[in-house]
Write a structure and sequence with these properties.
With about 300 residues, the protein is an all-alpha fold. The chain is about 70% helix and about 0% strand.
């Protein structure tokens, strides 16, 4: 394998691995723009991964699997919205509770449906769909134009959300509700309705992120296979400064960090093979470093985490 081939494979892996992070972070971006912070994003990714995998295992339809994953994310988002928007409970506590709920339910259902077979159940995942001609561009071609359908969808959604955020009434309403909900209400913007729309979109994208894990990056489901990606997505939103373009770049950075540690594990350096847990720490260590340096320089929506109700 030549140096160029190695670079193409590495960059392609970075983009592919960043797909669930990008989808989850885009969903959280929309929620936080409206003033909601949901650490239950981890549970949505996990629930989406399981629902998508189980549906494909039973129906052999990837399309139905993606729909089931999105519905699982929306269901958890509905529970969050009910508890935090309607009943005005603490957002952090509710998100943490939903994470534990997702871990428990997916673990129980996986063991119930698949855990007694004695072997790992696998499915036929999404295959790469190289785009003719564009795929042949050196370095950039494999990086951007040789992926599965879900990766292309994630990139398209990043562009769409960027346009919505800057050019549409919904984007304006999200920003107004997240910054000054009382002023937005006075201007006739339905604050809680906008927040409901935002949290349901977050649930849909969180479930889609889970589908990309079990139906694209993998061909099976493992308990707790989200592996902290929901929490990393929260850090990506901060590092991306609540901007879709910044979120895309941050997700790619984290995906590349994961690709690096996988590449190092596959190398022929004995120390790295013997101490691979240290390499596995790399994405999470990067998360902590970025939070330390980026949190103080970033400006979150002014009403983030605050309930709103008319007096």
């Amino acid at each position: 394998m030549t140096l160029i081939d190695s670079a193409e494979y590495f960059l392609q892996s970075g983009v592919r691995i960043s797909t669930p992070l990008l989808l989850a972070a885009l969903g959280e971006l929309i929620a936080e723009k409206s003033g909601l912070i949901n650490i239950g994003l981890e549970g949505k990714v996990l629930a989406g991964a399981f629902a998508g995998f189980m549906t494909v295992a039973l129906t052999h339809s990837l399309g139905l699997g993606v729909c089931a994953a999105m519905m699982a994310g929306i269901l958890l988002a509905f529970l969050f919205g009910l508890m935090c928007i309607t009943l005005r409970n603490d957002q952090i506590v509710t998100g943490a509770a939903l994470n534990f709920l997702a871990i428990g339910i997916t673990g129980f259902m996986y063991k119930t449906f698949f855990g007694t077979t004695g072997s790992t159940t696998t499915i036929s995942p999404f295959q790469e769909l190289p785009i003719p001609m564009l795929r042949d561009i050196p370095v950039i071609g494999p990086m951007l134009f040789s992926h599965t359908l879900l990766t292309y969808l994630a990139i398209a959604l990043a562009v769409l959300i960027m346009v919505v955020n800057r050019r549409t009434r919904l984007g304006f309403h999200l920003s107004a509700v997240g910054e000054q909900p009382r002023a937005a209400d006075a201007a006739g913007i339905p604050v809680n309705r906008v927040r409901w729309i935002a949290i349901l979109i977050e649930g849909l994208l969180g479930g889609l992120a889970g589908a990309s894990l079990s139906l694209s990056l993998s061909n099976t489901f493992n308990e707790e296979m989200s592996n902290g990606r929901g929490y990393i997505a929260l850090a990506i939103v901060i590092f991306g400064r609540w901007n879709p373009f910044g979120v895309f770049g941050a997700a790619l950075l984290f995906g590349t960090a994961t690709a690096i540690q996988l590449l190092l594990q596959a190398g022929n350096i004995p120390w790295m093979k013997q101490n691979y847990p240290y390499l596995q720490m790399l994405p999470y260590l990067l998360t902590l470093i970025i939070l330390v340096f980026a949190a103080g320089r970033s400006h979150a929506p002014a009403a983030l985490g605050r309930h709103y109700h008319r007096e």
